[in-house]
Amino acid sequence: MKILVTGGSGFIGSNFIHYWLSRHPDDEIINFDKLTYAANPESLKDLESNSHYQFVQGDICDESAVDSVMSSGVELVVHFAAESHVDRSIDDPLLFVKTNVIGTYTLLNSAKKHGNIRFHHISTDEVFGSIDFGSNLQFSEETPYDPSSPYSASKASSDHFVRSFGKTFGLPITITNCSNNYGPYMNPEKMIPRMITNIIDGKKVPVYGKGENFRDWLYVTDHCSAIETVVNKGKIGETYCIGGLKETSTNIDLVKRVLNLMGKDESQIEFVTDRPAHDNYAVSWEKLHNELGWEPQETLDSGLQKMIKWYQENEAWWREAKTEAEAFYQRLAASRQK
Ligand code: NAD
Ligand code: TDX
Question: What is the pTM of this model?
Answer without folding.
Answer: 0.98
